[in-house]
């Protein structure tokens, strides 16, 4: 039989030895070696390493030229980094200045890189200078490693290696824990009251601003800085706020946890390598020493937690809480102070834009549907929470979204569901220990489970996150009393009244024995974050709406036909039809009639929405119960607004009178 194979006695076919040799990789001998010939496999290129350490060194490459070691000014450079030598040195000098104690002339000695990566960081002998012995401390003799603007992948590695409670979920997100605090601590928030802020900020009854003096702030700052300098490494984020390039703010976040660094990487605007190279001195700095408590015996302290803002120094100090939302909302408060100084209105709102360029703002407290209604597959998402309205139009303050996760499902919120992937931070969620699949219905840790992800994770997000002037301003209220109409057109004074009121109603049920809804008022739909008096933001809103011809709307996403427990929740499909009619402009041409007490203009018809729910009283079987409930809610509005009646807008107070007249009349 011809060929290389042979048939054995059993009839099986087998290759000859020669054929077998030909089927294997060929081994050749390299001639010329002194002691012995060297064999190698000619089917693959020869390797250019001799040890396992050399192999590992080839695994990762640097994205930019390395920075040479240099000493001076209390700063020691490492041998790696994504910036040029001069910019890298400038960055470390800037961070050293940020971390400087107020009692010493120079900042701490810094090295760039992970202290565990000995191959990447070289130590240089430090020549001690002649200083008084009293000025020498252990922390002043050590080096602190700076992990500057790490990538999400690098932060994942840091969190999983060194932070207990950090895990990768089945979808690739980083699940982590915020410690004992799973939400903000508004009663522990303090703002420095000095000669400037005493007259500029909103103080007193109803205000979220609780005062502290400059000296107490400096005590807490020193405590936070000393703690951060005592660590082997700290994370530093240099990023931006506000997508409007003419009015963006440079922020620096110094923190002790990879979780915090990744959170702010997602929530702030991420600089390009070129922008980072020329970042310079930040406009505002956060010192997050949340793992370390404040001294409760310090003046103004009421617990081991303190979140302190000093607008004069442009600094924020966090002690005693690891909840990352404190950083996000702290910066939002700062923007509520800085932007109005530039004649820019800062807003706690969602924002989207139609394909024709029509922009809508959505205001609403928790549970009103702000995120759901501002996320529309037929429109571009500019942002879901924080915005600015300038003479050029609207811009998102943030670079990411911070979505609630409790009871999250793919069917209800597909965009949020799909955004929970690699790079996303999942706070305080519960997951299967084997599959790492998250159970979003599990409230074992907290109901306030959250996901923080870059805004580009939303498919229809508009990048850059800017848009023209809004055409519609939509105020959302979940009225569990069931007496507000599902849609009302507001005049300018009514828009200001309801904007200042910031009404919604929390549904009862979490407290045993409570059966009635509870009204909640939050000035400007974000009282916890505003710095100035609410009427100042309202006046700016009215001015911009009037200049741009924007229309105000009040949309009730709550109950109809009775209060909570008797009536029924207005169907989301009906609310979407109403929002679509606002976007299309069809409601501007509708005919309206006015309600009693609140004086709201209700359209006689909205396509796709039953007429009987447009007029609240028609949906109630018990008309007397409706009137009693309506008067009850009107009284709650009036009582709440008494906080603002003493504050005059304008020289003659005429605008204030118009706003008061726009409230309930009974």
From TrEMBL:
CDD domains attached to this UniProt entry: PEPCK_ATP
GO molecular function annotations of the record: ATP binding; phosphoenolpyruvate carboxykinase (ATP) activity
Disordered as annotated region, ranges: 57-76
Top-level division of the source organism's lineage: Eukaryota
UniProtKB keywords: ATP-binding, Cytoplasm, Lyase, Nucleotide-binding
Catalytic activity: oxaloacetate + ATP = phosphoenolpyruvate + ADP + CO2
PROSITE patterns per UniProt: PEPCK_ATP (PS00532)
Biological pathway: Carbohydrate biosynthesis; gluconeogenesis
GO biological process, one term: gluconeogenesis
Key word Endoplasmic reticulum present: no
The protein's assembly and partners: Monomer.
Similarity section: Belongs to the phosphoenolpyruvate carboxykinase (ATP) family.
Function: Involved in the gluconeogenesis. Catalyzes the conversion of oxaloacetate (OAA) to phosphoenolpyruvate (PEP) through direct phosphoryl transfer between the nucleoside triphosphate and OAA.
NCBIfam families assigned to the protein according to its UniProt record, in alphabetical order: pckA, PRK09344.1-2, PRK09344.1-3
Name this polypeptide is given: phosphoenolpyruvate carboxykinase (ATP)
